[in-house]
Amino acid sequence: MKTYLKEKIGNPDLFTGRKKELAWFLKWIDNIKRELSKSMAIISRRKTGKTAFLQRLYNLTFEKNEGVIPFYYELGEGSKWAVEFCKHFFLTFIYQYIAFKTRKPEYIYYLRKSDFNAAVNVAREENLEYLIDLIKEVELSFQEKNIEILWSSVREAPTHLAARQNESIVQIIDEFQFLNSEIYRDEAATNCIKDFAAGYMRTAEYKNAPLIVSGSWVGWLRQDLMMMLPGRFTEYDFGNMPMDETIEMVFKYSQMYEIPVTEETAVMIAELSEGNPFYVGSLFTSMCPDMELQTVDGLLSAFEFETRHKTGNIRKTWMEYVHSVFARVNERNAKKIVLYLCKNRNRQVTRKELLEKLDLGMTDYELEKKLHALVKGDIIEEGDSNFEYQGVGDNVFDKVFRSVYQKEIEAFDDKEIRNEYKALFDEYRQKYRQLLGRMNRMKGAYAEFLIINRLRFHAFRDNDGFKAMTENLPEDFRFIDYESVWTYRSSPIEKRDLLIDIYARAKEGEYAIIGEVKYRDTQKFSEAEAEEFLKKIELLKELESVPKYLGVVFSLTGFTREALDFLKAHGMAWTSDERWLGEG
């Protein structure tokens, strides 16, 4: 997939999983063409990968180029004068629209986003003259500085343009909650417009340019949607990733950051992170001294550093949440409440219990207001009723909060949390051993990961040795320093679903490697599997225009005679040499 909008994740190959979410939203976007899709709100805490997902969704829609024009805008923290914000919002939309229509992604980053005349000239140069009246109309509102008229013109521009041109547009607005906290009526930023987002009350209902909005503060975003935009958005719960995708992410980050893991520690990282991509990424980018993730002790040290040390990224991120909320409420009682809910996070707690157990010195009404503020800040959760509350269902937050605040509130020994970590690790290790015999796909994924590492770091340095481990190689074949090596999945926008265990992309004139890995206890690689692999190779050639390639099969248990005859007849190589799985 080509990247049009630069993705914050960095290297696009770091994006992992989210197959269910991508499939759902790509179908939702496709339905915009039939005006069937209602505006959506993605609900999830910070650092769960929403921005990476939304930017990837933009790029996939841009690349698909099948009648839905994507518009992406990220609101940031920091005061903004409404007039200047409206101009930037509108011209960003105009240039992204031009980029899509002309297939020139450089317009996405066009630098003159403060100049209406420049936009008019670009529209004229690209034979999109119908944009000129719209641009001049908004420019007139801008000159008059009437915020209500200007915001209405800007906000409704995508809907009106889509209607006028009989087109479909998807509007993706990230950090939507900042519309009500960062936009000011005056240039000096003294008069915040606290209901700025309410303007979408009518706009969000149109099906020719529906919105996807997201926000990192779940309680805050939900309150804005409920109070100002009731019934206008359908909520989509953007949860953590499933176990198989998380393990794939661990293997991928291990390769990209060149920090080895074992099959066991990969599973334990997936369990510890509970499928949260931020936690996984933080472990691989940790500043923990003597960082290593190949042993349980090494993983424990890294995890403790990230959640308990002042420079740990996980701890710093959670404490941003906590400090932002405590700055607005009575800290002492708030800390006592959150700590109590953390210690009882496996059940719902009533306000009555909190008043009785914690000696808070406040009325039930005062407690309710404080609890609502803590919910809005995402450091506690509402229960099944307005009378019940619960700690965040996240074992990492529990450890972070208690390590920072528990000593301040009650007698507490630091060893308590370390012992809890060890107990967690023992539990995950036992679970891993119980599942080991049944986790064939995971074991296969680990074998793929090991072979990928051999291809990426070792094979080209010992060309003769690795050629000796592999049968039926062409005479002119050599292992090289490949441009990229990883599992290949066809883009979600492709009509055909394709999964290749290993694809080593080669420089011009060299052999790319298309690999199949079978890591099982008894069954040999069969002729039917060889035939199926050949079909996958042909499809990959078509999708990626691979000029020169070699199909290679690794089968731990060997090959049937018929399979070897087929591989030889079709110029494919094979191996069952376990040295390919070496970790050195």
The CATH homologous superfamily of the largest domain: P-loop containing nucleotide triphosphate hydrolases
Terminal Cα span: 32 Å
Task: Assess the beta-strand content as a share of residues.
Answer: 5-15%
- Major sheet strand order: 2-4-6-1-7
Task: Pick out the low-confidence regions.
Answer: none
Question: What is the CATH domain class of the largest domain?
Answer: Alpha Beta
Can you put this structure into words, describing what you see?
It is flat and about 75 Å long. It has four domains: 12-237, Rossmann fold; 243-311 and 417-438; 315-393, Arc Repressor Mutant, subunit A (Orthogonal Bundle), CATH 1.10.10; 440-581, Trna Endonuclease, Chain: A, domain 1 (3-Layer(aba) Sandwich), CATH 3.40.1350.10. With 584 residues, the protein is α/β, with parallel strands linked by helices. Helix content is 49%, strand content 12%. It has 23 helices and 15 strands. The model has no long low-confidence stretch (mean pLDDT 90). The strands form four sheets. A five-stranded parallel β-sheet has the order 2-4-6-1-7, sandwiched between helices. Strands 11-12-13-14-15 form a five-stranded mixed β-sheet, sandwiched between helices.
Which descriptors apply to this entry?
49% helix; alpha/beta; Arc Repressor Mutant, subunit A; 5-stranded mixed β-sheet; 4 domains; 584 residues; 15 strands; 5-stranded parallel β-sheet; Rossmann fold; 23 helices; flat
